[in-house]
Structures are given as C-alpha cells and as structure tokens.
Design goal:
- It is a single chain.
- By secondary structure, the protein is an alpha/beta fold.
- It contains nine helices and eleven strands.
- Strands 2-1-3-4-5 form a five-stranded parallel β-sheet, with helices on both faces. A four-stranded antiparallel β-sheet has the order 6-7-8-9, covered by helices on one side. Strands 10-11 form a two-stranded antiparallel ribbon.
C-alpha cells in the first residue's frame, strides 16, 4: 500500500514516514501544498495524510482541487486545530478522517488501516486458494501454516493478492510497493519476489506466483480452500 504524507514540518514528516515504512507501507513525503497536490495528481495513492496548515497552498484548498479533479484517495487530515468546528469544516471539505496533533503513531497507523478497510474493495482478509493474508493481524498462512514475512514482502504479497490474475509489471510493483526514492535500476523487485516465492510456493501445490517472461508477475487465481481441504493437505505433508 502506498501513502502520501503532506506535512511541512520535516521532523514530523520524517517521523511519520519512518513509522509507516516500518509498518510495511511505501511512503512519499511532500512539504508544501503545491508539491503535495502535484504528487497526489500524478501518482495513485491508497491513503493521503494531509496537514491542513501548509505553505504555498493550504490543506483545504489542496483537498478541494484534488476532489474537483476526480481524486478519490481517502484523506486523513492531521492538524493542531482540534475544535469541533475545525473538525466539522475538515470533514465537510472532503476529509475522510481527522487526527489532532499531538498523536501517537499507533493511532496514526490504526486510522490509516481503518481507511484502507473502509474503501471498497479493500478487505481485511485476503484468500487465494489456501493462502490467507490478514492485514489487521499482519499475518500470513498457507495450508494453515504460518509464514514469516518481512514488512516489504508482506506489502508485495498484499499487492499481488489484491490484483490476483492480473500481470503486474516491474514498474507497477516499484511504484506501488516502493517510493520515489527507490532506484529502479536495482534488482530489489526480483530479489523480493524470489524470497517471497520460496516462502509461499516451495514444497506446496499449486505454485501461486508466476513469472510472465518479458512482461511481469502474477498471482494465480484459484478458489479459496475449504477448512477440510487445508486439513488434508497439512496431514498429507506432515
């Protein structure tokens, strides 16, 4: 999942970026309203975290331009102005949620996750065959067995599962799972996919992650396994 943080206080922006990155999100930061609007209009984001008091263009003006241009990404307003009137104004202007400074990073991440779940077709638990990814508990299992993933591997698998059956190019994966600072000349995408395939597919049938030569990668669409089928697979392999 990719998040845009629009915050002029670089220390606060850096803190949010670091914390969200540790939670597995790809995070871009903009430090004024004009830069933030440019990012939001040129890149697809799953959530935008918007400070309402910004230089060059204030947050509500930015949000108005974004919504008028068809931008539908959920927006979490973050501001020091916490009166009821301020919150009502923000929500009526198109914000989807409102967080008053100072706040805990745990609450910030919880609100981001809530916005992701709220927006259809985002769901908290994804099923592909006997592979299950729980975004709330940050847990992955296959055939009932837990699979340990790094935050970036988890984000990559979630992106593949939400787009099961579709070929995703390397560029699409870079843009969604990594951020603007990512060096597209590296082989990190291939390395992460190789590690993910080893954890998800090795010794299990059917293999789910497929390389489409010269195009990209896809996660095969297969029916979700029933509890009985998963139990039989575990018994057979055990």
């Amino acid at each position: 999942m990719r998040v845009l943080v629009i915050e002029d206080e670089k220390r606060v922006a850096g803190f949010m970026r670091r914390s969200l990155s540790e939670a597995g999100y790809a995070v871009d930061c903009a430090y004024d309203g004009e830069e933030g609007l440019h990012f939001a209009q040129t890149t697809i984001y799953d959530v935008i975290i918007l400070d309402l008091m910004l230089p060059k263009r204030d947050g509500l003006s930015l949000l108005k331009s974004l919504r008028e241009g068809g931008g539908a990404a959920p927006v979490l307003a973050v501001t020091a102005k916490g009166t009821v009137r301020d919150r009502v104004t923000g929500l009526n202007s198109g914000c989807d949620d409102y967080l008053v400074k100072p706040f805990s990073i745990a609450e910030l991440i919880a609100r981001v996750r809530a916005l992701l779940r709220r927006g259809s077709p985002q769901t908290a638990t994804l099923h592909i065959g006997d592979l299950v990814l729980d975004t709330t508990a940050h847990r992955v299992t296959r055939a009932g067995r837990p699979i340990e993933l790094t935050p970036k591997e988890f984000a990559l698998l979630e992106y593949l599962m939400r787009n099961a059956g579709q070929v995703l190019t390397k560029t699409m994966i870079e843009q969604h799972v990594w951020n603007y600072d990512f060096d597209s000349g590296t082989n990190l995408v291939e390395v992460h996919l190789s590690h993910l395939r080893a954890k998800i597919d090795q010794g299990l049938h059917p293999p789910l992650i497929e390389t489409v030569r010269g195009v990209g990668y896809l996660l095969k669409e297969v029916p979700a396994a029933s509890p009985c089928e998963s139990h039989r697979r575990i018994s057979a392999s055990g």
